[in-house]
Amino acid sequence: DKAGFDHYMAKEIAEQPGVVGAAVNSYLPAGGDLVELPGGNIDFTKIERMTMVACGTAFYACLTAKYWFEKLARIPVEVDVASEFRYREPPIPAQTAALFVSQSGETADTLAALRYCAGKADKILSVTNVAESSIARESDQTYPIFAGVEIGVASTKAFTCQLTVLLSLALKAARDRGTMSEQELTDAAAAMRSVPGLLNVALEQTDVIKAHARKLSEARDILFLGRGLMYPLAHEGALKLKEISYIHAEGYASGELKHGPIALIDKKVPVVILAPSDDLYDKSISNMQEVMARSGKVLLISDRKGLDHAGDVWGQIAMPECHPLVSPIIYSIPAQLLAYHTAVAKGTDVDQPRNLAKSVTVE
Ligand code: F6R
Predict the structure, then answer these.
(1) Is 97 helix (H, G, I), strand (E, B) or coil?
(2) Going edge to edge, which strands form the sheet with 270-274?
(3) Mutual orientation of helices 327-346 and 230-245 as an angle, nearest 10°?
(4) Is the ipTM of this complex over 0.90?
(5) Does ligand 1 come within 6 angstroms of the Cβ of 57?
(6) Burial level of 162, CB count in 10 A (0-12/13-18/19+)?
(7) Helix (H) or strand (E) holding 222
(8) Domain SIS: where (predicted)?
(9) Which atom of ligand 1 lies closest to the CA of 128?
(10) Measuring from atom 3 of ligand 1, which residue has the nearest CA?
(11) Residues in a beta bridge with 51
(12) What's the predicted TM-score (pTM) here?
């Protein structure tokens, strides 16, 4: 039941304030800043390193989590796509927690990577949307994301719920390890509780995003750029766009622009820049100027302050101001809606894109 929406994907994008709210309430109950883990406790003081493994969108959730765990809890994190990890047969040092992220819990390569780590890693953890799935069952501890059934092949609400759970785990790790002050933990918990409301504000930009998407639908190639926590989201935005609109898109770290991709830029190539007004904003804006100097069409996604400071660009999408830690969850909305409305403008089969399956249980 699409509940009045044209596609499941649109319905699932719109559901995010509710389902992310359910995840926040489950991991941060009772108004304080204590994280409770519905999947059972972990003592992060015993963990010296983490290895995170997943495919596709779940891989980009892991890449985002690396920034959180390293910055907040000072735990070194390696992230890999499951199909590479499993055949590389990497060494697993003592005191490693291996974490697998999978919406379906049945992705063949991710499951094989988990089985490779069983008996080698100190802990096998997973973050899934299906409690009875193979990945959930074969983990020492599994953390539910509360997204509800996701039908659209392009993952949307599962991604933001995965991010919510991974940030909760990182905050729990930071508390265990004493790497954040009480004040920082309180602020971070408050920021997480503000997410559902901010997602609603982000969704109010739908008409603006739709108008930009119509212009994007005429492009052959599109670049997505981001720094820090926006870097994994640049990849996710590009993946979402290519899988449902069939427009070629690539995500890059903004700082990598001058190491190659800048050669692609001309007046036909839209460049979507994800740049909230945080510590890295000035660096992102200087990359934006490099793009504009080569006649690239910049679509800037930032908050009011960031947009006002940037001057005249080809297109702007305004996001609410938010605590920098939760920005990837909020900025997922424009990334998803751009892909969705571009695909709708092109008339593709949004919920069932060609060549793709919802659950990849074969290699
Ligand atoms: C992209 C998408 C895929 C999946 C990937 C992993 O929108 O849906 O990239 O994220 O196939 O699937 P799960 O999370 O079920 O392991």
Answers:
(1) strand
(2) 248-253, 221-226, 270-274, 297-303, 315-319
(3) 20
(4) yes
(5) yes
(6) buried
(7) strand 221-226
(8) 34-179, 212-353
(9) 14
(10) 56
(11) 78, 98
(12) 0.98
360, burial (CB in 10 Å: exposed 0-12, middle 13-18, buried 19+) = middle
- Whose alpha carbon is nearest atom 11 of ligand 1? 56
For residue 317, give both structure tokens: 């999408």
CA 221, CA 107: separation in Å to the nearest integer? 29
Nearest to 244 by CA among 102, 344, 361, 333: 344
Ligand 1 pocket check for 56: Cβ under 6 Å: yes
Q: How many residues are present in the chain?
A: 363
Residues 107, 188: Cα–Cα separation, whole Å: 32
Q: Tens digits of per-residue pLDDT, 245-291?
A: 999 999 999 999 999 999 999 999 999 999 999 999 999 999 999 99
Neighbours of 12 (CB within 10 A): 27
Helix (H, G, I), strand (E, B) or coil at 362: coil
Dump pLDDT digits (tens) for 178-228: 999 999 999 999 999 999 999 999 999 999 999 999 999 999 999 999 999
Strands 270-274 and 96-102: unpaired
Distance separating alpha carbons of residues 303 and 197, to the nearest angstrom = 15
Report the chain's C-alpha Rg in angstroms.
20
**Which amino acid, residue 155?**
S
- Assess contact for 37 and 143: CB atoms under 8 A: yes
Residue nearest to atom 9 of ligand 1 (CA): 56
